[in-house]
Structures are given as C-alpha cells and as structure tokens.
Amino acid sequence: MIILGIDPGLTVTGWGVVAKSGSRLSHIANGQIRTDNKATMASRLVELDSALAAVIDIYKPDTGAVEEVFVNVNPQSTLKLGQARGVAMVAVARAGIPVAEYPTKVIKKALVGTGGAEKQQIQHMLKILLPGVQLAGEDASDALAVAITHANMLGSHR
Question: Which residues participate in Mg(2+) 2 binding (predicted)?
C-alpha cells in the first residue's frame, strides 16, 4: 500500500510518500511545495493544487492523510492554513483516493510517544523508522510523520 502524507501550508506544503507491506514501512519520496508569496491567494492555491496533483500522478498513492489545522494566535494565519488544507484534501479526493485527517498531537504521539514532541524528536524517529531517509525539510518530515501515522492507524483498524 502506498500512503501519501501532507503537511499543508500556504507558503510551504510538505509531502511524504511511504509504502506499507505488512508491518514494514519504507520511504518512497518526500518534498516541499513552495508557493509564490507575491502571487494572489487564488494563484497560490492553484499552484498548490497543481503541484499536489503532480505528486499524486507520479506516486499513485492508495490512500492519503492530511494534518489537521491548529489554531494560531493570528486568525489570518489560521484562515490561510485552512485554505491550503482544503486544497490538499480536494487534490487527494479528486484523484479518487480516500483521505484521513489527524491532529498534530496524535501524529506526535504516534511517532514519538508524546503529543508534546519537538520537531527534532520527530525527525530523529523518522531516521530510525525510515533508515537512510533524506528529508527535504521540516515540512516534508512532518508530512512523512502524517503518512506513518496513517499507516499505523490503518493497521489498527483491521
């Protein structure tokens, strides 16, 4: 099973693809999509949608998962994040792929064992779970964490 994880953001959206075979996970790819912050909101959302469609077309995931929006102190940031998250969910759903959502605390707990884990702890755990992985950046590592969480949750529902 091929699993796509997405860490949505308007400026940078991370994506990660893992394969699950039984209880074994392996890294396929990860990356980051950066939108032009000088472009209009609509143009940036289209750019994000096109880039995610390309990732889906290349890796052909069987299922996907998106990190849920957390509420920022700045309401404008929360709204922008929500719009990027909506585009990510639509891109996956449009491809006919089921998409799940996970809160940040659940992702951190699934990987590190505590919902308050730091980014460095997540990156360290990714290197243990996916030996030899080269992380494209913080957002890509968060997206791989989303994919691994979904892979583990799929196993617990069977």
Answer: 67
